[in-house]
Amino acid sequence: MREIERELIEKAGKGDTRAFRELYDQTSGYVYGLAYRVTGRKHDAEEVAQDVYVRIHRSLAVFRFQSAFKTWLYRVVLNTALNHLKKKRRIAGHEVEDTEGFNAVASPEAVRSVEISESELKLKRMLERLNPDQRACLVLRELEGMDYQAISETLGINLNTVRSRLKRAREALIAMGKKEVANDAMFQNT
After folding, report:
1. What range does the domain containing 19 cover?
2. 62 vs 94: CA distance, rounded Å
């Protein structure tokens, strides 16, 4: 996402609907993408994105440019996504997706595409099993390419907390990966 002009932010904060629409147009892909990477589900990302724009609309007037708009937007999206996940877990537990496929004769390209999709699905499932706070740190570091200090500022947490969450997230992913490999080996031997 490119940096948003201060004038546009100020106009949107003062209630200019055209400016807010332009702000939305410039940031919506970024907001949705980040929300999707944190929640892992299209429907949840859409809900989070809606909530984010309601929050932005309510609080943009008090934005004082003490940090970059992008950093502030990161915080709003991540906090909204994490709160959404926590609320969802409290209310309904984990949703189960229908991941059953079908058997058919396919070209080598199609088989490779399915194998990639299966790997992505396994990774997605593993990420979903992480603590939401760990997942947020991991998404910002590995997918967004943020450094530890930026993650600390974005999430409003101590730098050492970022390090420990990333370490625990990586350890959990490694353990899940080993378990997955062991399960696959057992399945192939039966």
Report:
1. 1-95
2. 36
